[in-house]
From TrEMBL, chains A, B:
SUPFAM superfamilies assigned: Guanosine diphospho-D-mannose pyrophosphorylase/mannose-6-phosphate isomerase linker domain (SSF159283), Nucleotide-diphospho-sugar transferases (SSF53448)
Protein name according to UniProt: Mannose-1-phosphate guanylyltransferase
Gene Ontology BP terms: GDP-mannose biosynthetic process
GO MF annotation list: mannose-1-phosphate guanylyltransferase (GTP) activity
Nucleotidyl transferase domain: residues covered: 10-292
Any one Pfam family match given in the protein's UniProt record, by short name: ManC_GMP_beta-helix
Domain MannoseP isomerase/GMP-like beta-helix residues, every copy: 310-362
Family matches, as PANTHER family: MANNOSE-1-PHOSPHATE GUANYLYLTRANSFERASE
CDD domains: GDP-M1P_Guanylyltransferase (cd02509)
Amino acid sequence: MADALEDFYAIIPAGGIGSRLWPLSRADAPKFLHDLTGSGTSLLRQTWDRLAPLAGDQRIMVVTGRAHRAAVEAQLPGVADHNVVLESEPKDSTAAIGLAAAILRRREPDVVIGSFAADHVIGDARGFRRSVRDAVAAARAGYVTTIGITPTEPAIGFGYIHADGAALDVEGASTVHAVKSFVEKPDLDTARRYLDDGSYLWNAGMFIARADVLLAEIGRTKPELLAGIEELAAAWDTSSRGAVVDAIWPGLEKIAIDYTVAEPAAAAGRMAVVPGDFDWDDVGDFASLAKLQSGGRANNLAVLGDGARILADSSSGIVVAHSQRLISLIGVEDIVVVDTPDALLVTTSANAQRVKGVVDALKVSGRGDVL
Amino acid sequence: MADALEDFYAIIPAGGIGSRLWPLSRADAPKFLHDLTGSGTSLLRQTWDRLAPLAGDQRIMVVTGRAHRAAVEAQLPGVADHNVVLESEPKDSTAAIGLAAAILRRREPDVVIGSFAADHVIGDARGFRRSVRDAVAAARAGYVTTIGITPTEPAIGFGYIHADGAALDVEGASTVHAVKSFVEKPDLDTARRYLDDGSYLWNAGMFIARADVLLAEIGRTKPELLAGIEELAAAWDTSSRGAVVDAIWPGLEKIAIDYTVAEPAAAAGRMAVVPGDFDWDDVGDFASLAKLQSGGRANNLAVLGDGARILADSSSGIVVAHSQRLISLIGVEDIVVVDTPDALLVTTSANAQRVKGVVDALKVSGRGDVL
């Protein structure tokens, strides 16, 4: 195994609930705390284990909500106190990643940070790490760098990265391209065209950059937000942290890093992408979870849940069994059944994206007890 | 209201579990103990209430399994001890109805008995009672009489009674026909032909006859079974009942009354039918329960269960909520969801008849705890 990268620090923003995976994912049991692969460990822990050989386990920072602190530390017994950044309320990814980058830059001015979602699934950890090494080389050269997954099908559930055809010349990196633009989730025809074209990659939400470069990008688009982040970072390792957090955090603008960094940097030619040939999935809904669990086989019933008691006849799709009940399916195809002690979801793969709507409806109807 | 019929005794065989309604119906909670109409009372109690104005509540005999005695008596607080016949093990309808008839004949030689399933739904109790009065008149005239429901659609889930075109001349009855034959559940084309023909009626499993006439029919086809029934009946109201039951009951042949009485009597011209124009359903599976609950409306979601918490979007079919969980459905059509504390069923109306197969599979796989 290759050595850890000396100047590299990994950041894991562990924030989103994963509403499209309700009622499995909940406010108090967000997606990243679940074992969605049947591996026996949570997605968060798998993310950590994937990064530790690159960064060293003393150089992985987790940004999470105060409510999840205990659960996160239980998943990551090796995490150091100074590597846990707690959010008093969610402020989206610019604040989360920006604050981590700002804290780390004060501790270590030349640090290269890499931010990786806590709740994605990657099949080939070695392939992933090869791509990160290339991305770190590009980051050292001054690029805000992302890793774009080489598409294997015309997926409509992911955003895409349009890469420039010509490779950049970056020392220590095998293949790096400039990013022409980030594009939204396409329709099927467009996704097919992207697949044929070859210069479109799936956006896996990975950002690798020198901390100072990343912060400068935020400052270009959102100077007030950067000022707040820097004020927090300046106080972070001091006794005034609590008071400054209370004063500053509530006023931070809530905005995704895609809009503050990725898109503007791409438009200005400062964004690079490393093509990644490893299996990756954001497990965005139960349809993708079904596909992941069934290994892509059709007419197959995927089952997730320890000690699940399933009796299925002529049925396909996915059953998530988080109760101890016997579940019987007869003649239901592409079905999604998610069985938990206090809530049951029955839908189909085709309707998987609509699950978020249920969560919204539960919020407005005052049934937050099952969220 | 018309007076009770002096020579009439009602029999309610309360035996079958209703396996096609699993996991709602169970060995310890059979179909007849459930409220399937949302009326607030069990099907058994509704059957009793329908019959009491005809027979008087001291003249309704219930035949049920020993295990259900307490539940039956709780549903029917007015039932007299001498009107409860307990089976030590299920022996199908010839033994159940035959024993009741034999006991009643010894108590009252000229009695006319009427046997009515404990777990059917009838919308119009007055129409039902009018038909029973006609059937009792035909029974007094010596016929084994049934009530055949006038079909309202080409149903494939019921057996049919083929009535002779010409009416019989029976004193005190408005319309009685001879039965040409009983026919099995038809395919759809045949069912359509039956509906157009007009001389086919749904077999609702109702039998009205003089007790001695019914017993004579059993004796013609199954003399050994009748001998056992008579031996039991002779001992029934004596101190030797227990010993005789132990000696005789286990050896009784297990056979439906359709084969011992209805079909042979029809073939011999001794069977009559009264056409019934009232709403009737045997609620044989969740598809018919869905239809019953939704009033026949398509694209409607029927919900059964006190305090059900349902959140449905673009879904139709039926949800039976016997747990307190929130149930969310998205984009599932003609779905059947039956949610109980220890077992969950998800299927479709089209597959409703296959539910019995699950029960059979659970039996052989040793998961009898949920049966």
